[in-house]
Write a structure and sequence with these properties.
about 350 residues; 18 helices; about 75% helix
């Protein structure tokens, strides 16, 4: 049985060879190719004879079938030089960025030293500039901080330092504005709440200071030593000795070598009349510590409470020689008169 072939008109699909497509692409990219020369090659190009694009371009140039082959060469050179220039620009920006970071780091380190920031952090305190020498140092720190903020207006560390700088100069409202701006930028930065709490304490805003210090401890519960010392100091000044000593003991657990934590514990024990325990804590504060105002102050109190106020006076003089502008020594000890008072208090209690 013969099968009937189905016949009908089929629409022929005009197919474009790879060679023709390549020519069309070249005509679009390189306008200097003569149209006639391109069309004359169409019939001679088959898929098997189409070479790679780069080699084919060179072939066209050798055959002088590109009207302005110098333009193609210039385009290639231009692209190459542009890529090199872009790479150089990026490298220059990276070098500039690195230099800015180094400059910022150096400036912040210098400002921290001039603000006596390390000292303040160790003591958990922030205070006004006591004299012209310290005030001059603080003003120099302010210049360094301003340079950093010109380079990086949102630098959190620089903003925090500026708040400390303004506090030391007694410009509390300006300091509040700076701290507010910094906390908006980084609302979970425990350090910002700590130093704002210190600033508010100096400004007499004790309740607000306590709120900030509590927030700082909540954000950084495992390592908040200075925050607990500062908060405990405020509670102790309000007569809340149990709450204060709990904070001091926690700070001592986190940092067993903290001389100030042991001294604060001893101070509370002394107020309670627990002199033997207070002496023990004072000696802990001095044990294993390098010679410093804190270690000598601790020894001074220990000697005073054991009835040796004269030797205690020698220790306190040594402490003041090591740190003549140490507000902590001046506040907590107040010289030999405080030692004599401590000795007298012990005798009365005994």
């Amino acid at each position: 049985m013969n099968r009937k072939r189905q016949t009908g008109s089929r629409k022929k699909v005009r197919r474009t060879s790879p060679g023709k497509r390549l020519i069309a692409d070249i005509d679009e990219v390189v306008p200097h190719v003569e149209g006639k020369a391109s069309r004359s090659l169409i019939n001679n190009l088959t898929p098997a004879r189409v070479p790679k694009t780069g080699t084919w371009l060179l072939t066209l140039m050798r055959r002088k079938e590109v009207a302005n082959w110098a333009a193609v060469s210039g385009l290639i050179v231009g692209i190459t030089l542009g890529a090199i220039s872009l790479w150089d620009l990026r490298a220059a920006r990276q070098r500039e960025k690195k230099q800015v970071l180094i400059t910022v780091s150096d400036l912040l380190h210098d400002a921290w030293d001039k603000l006596e920031g390390k000292r303040g952090a160790e003591l958990g305190t922030l205070s006004l500039a006591n004299d012209e020498v310290e005030r001059s140092s603080v003003i120099e720190a302010g210049r360094a901080i301003d340079q950093v903020l010109r380079l990086d207006p949102t630098n959190i560390t620089a903003l925090g330092y500026r708040g400390i700088y303004l506090t030391k100069l007694g410009q509390y409202d300006a300091a509040e504005d700076v701290f507010r701006r910094a906390i908006v930028l980084d609302p979970r930065n425990a350090w910002l709440y700590e130093i704002r709490g210190g600033s508010r304490r100096v400004a007499g805003k004790r309740n607000l200071a306590m709120t900030d210090l509590k927030t700082s401890i909540e954000l950084n519960p495992t390592t908040a030593v200075y925050e607990r010392l500062s908060l405990g100091y405020l509670l102790e000044s309000q007569g809340k000795l149990d709450e204060a000593i709990a904070l001091y003991r926690k700070a001592s657990e986190i940092s067993p070598i903290s001389a100030l934590a042991h001294m604060r514990i001893a101070g509370v024990l002394q107020k309670r009349g627990e002199f033997d325990n207070a002496i023990s804590e004072y000696r802990k504060a001095a044990t294993g510590q390098p010679p410093s105002s804190e270690s000598y102050t601790a020894l001074a109190f220990a000697e005073a409470l054991t009835g040796n106020a004269e030797l205690g006076g020698v220790y306190i003089e040594t402490a003041l020689q090591l740190a003549p502008r140490d507000t902590q020594v001046l506040e907590d000890v107040g010289g030999a008169s405080t030692l004599r008072l401590a000795d007298r208090r012990k005798q009365v209690c005994i």
